[in-house]
Design a protein that fits this description.
By secondary structure, the protein is mostly helical. The protein has a single domain, classed as Glycosyltransferase (Alpha/alpha barrel), CATH 1.50.10.10. Helices cover 38% and strands 5% of the residues. The strands form three sheets. Strands 1-2 form a two-stranded antiparallel ribbon. Strands 3-4 form a two-stranded antiparallel sheet. Helix 1 runs parallel beside helix 3 and helix 3 crosses helix 5. It is globular, with a radius of gyration of 18 Å. It starts with a helix and ends in a 33-residue tail after the last helix. The mean pLDDT is 94.
């Protein structure tokens, strides 16, 4: 996790290059922290809250002042960018635009996963300030309170606003939409029933043979999560057809 401290000056420089506050974290970075030379990587934002997520995981393991101090600058700089990047629309809501979806299917507005992750990240950064005895950051709260809603159509979440073909044209590769309620705990602005229908829609419509990498742990969470049933690998079907072995994992948030 020391990479974030090493890469912080590069992330701050990248944010400043695009005239934003804080630190913009790169995608596919080299050992010096530079982002891979591909234009869409600069529009990818699903990775932006990651340092806050990792900081929170370490704090759960070691809830000490030392942990808070270790991550303070990284968490706050990350949140400063997250509060500065959104664009105010005619609806007076804050929108994430333009962004490339985590699936890298294209450029769109207000992708569902990123909108949920933005809510979680800003709220967690405020909690981090409170743990340190600091006042809440007014701009973070303003953005958090006024973020645009997650895009919905026919009772399920969409990749991006108005991407009505999310489950036909874009139903392969990473199922970003699962992350709204599997990778992330439920946050304000995420409807449980809509999330449930989204998971069922993905299960039915997705091209599961064309998935890889982190798609499967997103769907399973082998060690469990806060509030999960107290049994081995609760994310897997309990039908007697699975034997799941794992080691060294902690429960997810």
């Amino acid at each position: 996790m020391g990479c974030y401290e090493t890469f912080l000056p590069v992330a701050q420089k990248l944010a400043k290059q695009f005239d934003y506050k804080g630190a913009k974290w790169g995608k596919q970075v080299g050992p010096e922290g530079r982002t891979a030379p591909w234009d869409p990587t600069y529009l990818l934002h699903w990775q932006q809250p990651h340092p806050i997520f990792f900081a929170e995981l370490e704090y759960r393991l070691k809830p000490t002042k030392a942990t808070l101090k270790k991550w303070q600058t990284i968490v706050f700089e990350t949140a400063d960018y997250m509060a500065d990047f959104p664009v105010t629309g005619k609806d007076r809501k804050y929108h994430l635009t333009p962004v490339v979806t985590a699936n890298e299917n294209g450029i769109g507005d207000d992708p569902a996963f990123e909108m949920a992750y933005w809510r979680w990240g800003l709220a967690k950064a405020q909690e981090w300030r409170e743990r340190m005895g600091l006042k809440r950051e007014a701009q973070w709260d303003k953005v958090l309170k006024n973020l645009a809603p997650l895009p919905v159509a026919d009772g399920v979440y969409l990749y991006c606003n108005n991407w009505l073909d999310s489950y036909t044209k874009y139903n392969s590769g990473h199922p970003d939409l699962l992350g709204v309620c599997t990778f992330l705990p439920f946050v304000d602005g995420v409807d449980r029933e809509t999330a449930r229908r989204t998971v069922e829609k993905i299960d039915k419509e997705w091209q599961w043979a064309n998935m890889w990498g982190w798609d499967y742990p997103w769907a399973a969470m082998a060690a469990g999560w806060d509030g999960a049933p107290d049994k081995n690998a609760p994310g897997f079907p309990d039908n007697g057809q699975w034997v799941v072995k794992w080691e060294g994992l902690k429960r997810a948030l």
